[in-house]
Amino acid sequence: MTPTPPAPAPAPDFIIIGAMKSATTTLHDQLDQQPGIFCCEPKEPYFFSNDEVFAKGQAWYQGLFADAAPGDLRGESSTHYTKLPTYPHTLDRLADHAAQHPGLKLIVLLRHPIDRLVSQYIHEWSQGLTKAPIDQAIGELPILTDYSRYAFQLEPFLTHPAFGPDKLLPLFFDAMRAHPQQTLEHACQFLGYPGTPAWQEQDASNVSSQRMRKTWWRRAFVDPPVFGAIRRTLVPQGLRDRVKRSLTMQSRPELSDAARQALTECFDADLARLGGWLGLELTCDNWKSVTRDQFPRWVKPPQTEASPRTTEAAA
Predict the structure, then answer these.
(1) Pairing mode, if any, of strands 37-39 and 105-110?
(2) Cβ neighbours around 214 below 10 Å, total
């Protein structure tokens, strides 16, 4: 009697790879709500990017998808995967994984590069990575600019033989806001989803500007629930409110004209490359009007690198 082959280890069929602060959580949640699609928890395992997570091993990663039903499309969403140069080993690790799972597909959400940068700055401020005003922080934290350089982030995926343009779907943040159902259908068609997806309306609010900075003051006065009763008894409400206000960004930060102009020049050069690959004329000034109604495909992507096997055969 022929033994039954073991079931393949669970692995993702798709990954949302970014960009940070571009509504990846919204798309992840919408996909997860569709029958026949399973998105892992945590949403962002960072397995292929973060060394300390990768060290947990394939068995740990595969375990994130163990609860998927047979036949489900399985996915995860880790924005660290489009954070060069912070995580330099991501692509090689993903490519090794894709060699074992050649059906793996990638999705990237793209937001106006300056808007995305400002939203990331608020996040980094709340995490205590910077205390500087936004103009100063741009000079001190190159990641604010780097993560909005979409051609720079995506070219390695588009040119790698394990991926290429057929395996990477670009979506626009503004199109998803304007046409959520159509965006979801577009994503599901790319993934090979057999059903008809339905966008689920949700209460949404932008709380980025109300994030509270992580400090010892916050830990002492706000966070630890075990001290809640003592805190309420010993620390007057007025003082607690003042501490919260001092640790909360009260309004969205504004770039100076000079900083915005410098960013525009930087991003326009990158967007010219991206737009050429998509057959679109993209600039910071026209981004929202152009992308609002677009569901693009790669029409002239950068040339894919020859794989070692192809190179050897040619020789």
Answers:
(1) unpaired
(2) 15
pTM confidence score: 0.84
SS (H, E, C) 154-173: HHHHHHCCCCCHHHEEEEEH
Q: What is the structure's pLDDT at 244? A: 42
What CA–CA distance (Å, rounded) separates 122 from 117? 9
d(CA 155, CA 165): 10
* Placement of tokens 């830990």 in the chain: 219
Q: Are 63 and 45 in contact (CB under 8 A)?
A: no
- Of 71, 285, 43, 278, which Cα lies nearest the Cα of 193? 71
Chain position carrying tokens 């740990």? 60
132 closest CA partner among 143, 116, 144, 121: 121
Cα 205–Cα 211–Cα 213 angle in degrees, nearest 5: 175
Rounded to whole angstroms, the Cα distance separating 292 from 175 reads 4
Distance CA 53, CA 56 (A): 5
Q: How far apart are CA 191 and CA 170, in angstroms?
A: 13
* pLDDT tens digit sequence for 265-305: 999 999 999 999 999 999 999 999 999 999 999 999 998 76
With CA atoms as reference, report the closest residue to 296 among 191, 194, 198, 165. Answer: 165
- pLDDT on residue 13: 98
pLDDT(208) > 50: no
Report in angstroms the alpha-carbon separations of 15 from 33, 73, 150, 180, 245: 16, 11, 17, 19, 38
219 SS3 class: helix
> Exposed/middle/buried for 186, CB within 10 Å: 0-12, 13-18, 19+?
buried
A 10 A CB-CB count for 107 gives: 23
